[in-house]
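Pilot study result, target chain (74 residues):
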Amino acid sequence: YPVLARRCLDLKTDDKEVVQMCDAVQKLVDESKEEIAINLLKEKAAPELVSRATGLSMARVLELQAGLQEGSAD
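Predicted structure:
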């Protein structure tokens, strides 16, 4: 598969491609942290614990918690 091999090489060696890949992976990590935080909050975990467990800021955890509360009011 020469096309696939070339693309993989580009992703590993071209600076622009490396930055794009790193950004994409970081976005996935951030989304996963938020998903974990939401699940913990749904289980009534304390926001402080959620922040420590996920590495999210306390402000972001409280935003996620507020979003859950708004969603349950509908």
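One observation from the pilot: Residues 15-42 form the longest helix (28 residues). A full batch analysis is planned for the follow-on phase.
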